[in-house]
Design a protein that fits this description.
The protein is an alpha+beta fold. The chain contains four helices and four strands; from the N terminus they run H-E-H-E-E-H-H-E. A hairpin with a 2-residue loop joins strand 2 and strand 3.
Length: about 190
């Protein structure tokens, strides 16, 4: 085989990989946007209607159902969820491979490294997980996720009724909260 043919094959393989990664990232962006906007729209409506207490009750009762609702809307083997090293709901606890990625993201964040907007990890021949960091970027987030002086006491009582083992507190503005994780299986 000539060097030119070998070079062409390697270039072709690289282009296919780049194209595939671009497709995976776009699919992940779409899934994340769908879940994020669905959660945010409903959370905002509850905040406006009944303040932080109602928003906390809403999240406790409905966030997992909304996640499920979004996931069943996908036509193929794609799922999206939120996870964190400091989760509130045990259903959001990271799987072992997700924990390793979150720990590295946290380490990079603490050392001042910029986190990529999307991180693609291939988990097997046909399966990818795409991570999008979630940051505490609004003061209202601290009403439920901040320290004891920042949290709304009544809202937090509601949260603790549902999540007595809550770990999702003591964040500051700008902190890494966790990640959206999109699992994509290509057939």
């Amino acid at each position: 085989m000539s060097k030119q043919l070998l070079s062409a094959l390697l270039l072709s393989s690289t282009l296919v990989h780049a194209s595939n990664e671009a497709q995976i990232k776009q699919e992940a962006k779409d899934a994340i946007l769908k879940l994020k906007s669905s959660l945010q729209t409903r959370l905002k409506a509850n905040l406006q209607k009944g303040g932080v207490v109602q928003a906390a009750a809403f999240c406790s009762r409905k966030a997992q159902a909304i996640t499920h609702e979004v996931n069943v809307s996908f036509a193929h083997e794609t799922t999206v969820h939120r996870t964190s090293l400091h989760y509130r709901n045990s259903e959001n606890s990271p799987k072992s491979d997700e924990r390793a990625v979150l720990e590295q993201m946290q380490k990079d964040f603490e050392s001042g490294k910029a986190l990529p907007p999307l991180l693609v990890k291939q988990t097997d021949e046909n399966t990818y997980k795409v991570y999008k960091p979630i940051f505490i970027n609004k003061g209202v987030c601290l009403k439920c996720h901040g320290n004891a002086t920042q949290r709304d006491a009544t809202a937090y009582k509601t949260i603790l009724k549902n999540y007595p083992q809550d770990k999702a507190v003591n964040y500051k503005m700008g902190d890494l909260r966790g990640a959206f994780v999109v699992k994509i299986v290509q057939r």
